[in-house]
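check these tokens.
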Amino acid sequence: MSHLDSYGSIEPRGRDRAARPALPWPEHDLGPGSRVRQAYAEQPVVTWTPEEYDEARADDQPTLVPGHPDFDRAWSSGPAPIDGPDPYQPAGAAGPDPYPGPEGDPYAEPAAGPGPEPEPGPAPDPSAHGPAHDPFGPAGTAEPASERPPGRWRGRRRPVRGGGSAAGHGRSSRAGRNLPAAIGVGLALGALILVPLFTEILAFLVVLAAAVAVGMWEMSRAVRRAGAHPPVVPLIAGGVLTVGLAWWSGPDALVLGLLVTLAATLVWRLSEGKAGLGRDMTAATLIAVYVPFLAGFAALLAAVPGDGHLRVLVTLVAVVLSDTGGYAAGANFGKRKMAPTISPSKSWEGFYGSVGTAALGSALLIWLLFDVAPWWGALFGVAVSIAAVLGDLAESMIKRDLGIKDMSNLLPGHGGLMDRLDSILFAVPTAYLLLAVFAPVVS
């Protein structure tokens, strides 16, 4: 009997086989895009529930393994015992086998001749191969008690969806985040901003520049999933320069820093060739406007003489109140989706909670710090909250378009730094313009 061709070919072998062109795969039908691969790809994926699996396993016959009683009886020298009537005996037949073969068993080994009958050996010891009971578990179970075949359903406990352990999900929030880690990281970030803000304002500028650099690095890394490769070095250097110019020279220098950043990025990118230039410069422009230009308004707020640190404080408090109120209202009362195609977790009830909480808190805080009428403070809170929600939706749209959940995994419980800066970046220009009207700077 000739061996089977592993490639399924029935053509002659050796010299009788016609010459065929050399291919990187064995046969034409097994190559990329072939009918065979397409047929396998079109097969539907069948998913079984535990109950359906148990019903299907009920008709399965266990595989005989060493240690199983049927295994020992099958390989013993004596005939296998039959419990009950012979399944091969016709119904109602009695007496000897009506279908005897020649010399009894036609498959028996021929006799070697006259001689003494061999003495039967000792009975096989089932304990030599395993336990004396059924290795497939106690009676009534279809799965083995100790060792189960790989790839089969192990018990009836429902698996945890979304990955991770059940214990880890018990500590997570309703938004899928690790709530204790998120709170700890949030407090650490708040201290990193507020301590230099009220002690040494130049240290706050350093923290702001570092945040801009990290945010631009995360954005540059994320847009690579769309095939864009903006130059990172001129972008980060120009972003830090933009924040510094806004601090030292005001709004006009902020616009100048943006233009210088884009020009330096274009020159750097042209030195690498023209292939993909438009795509890379589009991504670079988005990053330069989204991160350092918007963050430059925080430097403008902090640079206001006398009460710059208070202006930054009321802006950050309004954003934090907006996020906290929106989370609390959405988690407890959220029913109507606000933007299901962009951010499925946001609801209109959460939006109302964001606006209301920010309005109340800002009305009280601005009245106490700037001696401004509470309704102006409430208007400030409403505007900042709307800007913060729009900033969050804008980054969610970018991440959904790129096919990512977080910009990075730099901050436990939060994702990336840009996942925390998204609402602040849209809020600081709004706060700068409104505070310039509500609480004008007195030289």
Residues 374-402 form the longest helix (29 residues). The first strand starts at residue 337 and ends at 339. The two ends are 103 Å apart (CA to CA).
